[in-house]
Amino acid sequence: MAPWLPLLSLLGLLLGADPAPPRQAADAQAREAAYPELLGPARFALEMYNRGRAAGTWATLGAVRGRVRRAGQGSLYSLKATLEEPPCNDPTVCQLPVSKKTLLCSFEVLDELGKHMLLRRDCGPVDTKVTDDKNETLSSVLPLLNKEPLPQDFSVRMASIFKEFVTTYNRTYESKEEAEWRMSVFSNNMMRAQKIQALDRGTAQYGITKFSDLTEEEFRTIYLNPLLRENRGKKMRLAKSIGDSAPPEWDWRNKGAVTQVKDQGMCGSCWAFSVTGNVEGQWFLKRGSLLSLSEQELLDCDKVDKACLGGLPSNAYSAIKTLGGLETEDDYSYRGHVQTCSFSAKKARVYINDSVELSQNEQKLVAWLAQKGPISVAINAFGMQFYRRGISHPLRPLCSPWLIDHAVLLVGYGNRSGIPFWAIKNSWGTDWGEEGYYYLHRGSGACGVNTMASSAVVD
Questions:
Q1: Which segment of the chain is annotated as a signal peptide (predicted)?
Q2: Residue 28 belongs to a domain with what CATH number?
Q3: Would you place residue 155 in the very low, low, confident or very high pLDDT band (cuts 50, 70, 90)?
Q4: Same domain (yes/no): 165, 255
Q5: Which residues are annotated as catalytic?
Q6: Do 248 and 151 share a structural domain?
Q7: Which residues pair with 116 in a beta bridge?
């Protein structure tokens, strides 16, 4: 079976789809192509690869070989190419701590009536020394999947799936060219989701989400928070130890300490949502009243953090203390961009006395959460662009604890079918994940969940 069929079946989009044409028949129509014939499609693939990258980080084309076959009214090029990348030292650009130099890429480029469309892109380092705790090299955990040629009707089927995505998520694009570009991004993202699915050790399902037409760079720039990995911010005092005994499961959602899932929009303000969620829980536990608090106040009035460009929970706690409290969401509603600070001390409904840093021992975090309330944490958001449901457990080299880039809220923990998990409140709306929640493996330090845990203190 061609490799894209399990993918589409996995996503629940082509149940009952017809089987792919026999491999032998497809290969019989393919032929080796000479270098001059491959150069145009290869240059187009390179252009798509470099699109959205800053000058100075562009890859250059090396060796190219490939095959071509008829596909509808055009030609489908299956390319193998080497790309040369300059060393990458910017942690906001490099997802993995690898100075990439030579990449081996597989591209599928459709040429119809002189117009190119990139249908697939799979690239990986030719050689890398980065390993995880079990000495697995990245080359062993990042295989080049989907090496078989795509079926002749792939573009038709992909167009149908993309059209359904556009309808479901009410997408509009400025031009036909933009729509074609987004379809190529969408197609590539489906392959990325399949890779993430194949390498996940939990029960998570990855596939089409409302972010599926964004490039990795766009998603990271718009929704994530690079400041978390660059600077730990103001040093907080360590919380007093409360031991590590705890019930087998706990969920503050069932106990009235968690407000509804919110949506940060196209703004890297996750840090503000993580902190207000924690303060909401602390105020409820101390005062018995659950109030939805204002993230916009922090965007506008926290002059240390950078609003939609990112921030740190430790700075946000300090801002709340300095300002004199937080207003409610109703009084100071969310806009998703910076405005002039309009905080009014008279409208402040909640205050905090201090903030504390929590242990990196996950069992101690379990005990603290059960006794003290929801916890602000930061994680590496690897795979979350395509997360749909289940317990995520990425391989450590893919989800490094040193590359955290998203702040969220731990609201509970438990086990599903014997797999321990953290229940995490996200801030991307209820139309993402499990009604806005993310479930991450507990007990292995997955994605750095234990590296930046903190809480406000309400006396």
A1: 1-19
A2: 3.10.450.10
A3: confident
A4: no
A5: 270, 406, 426
A6: no
A7: 111
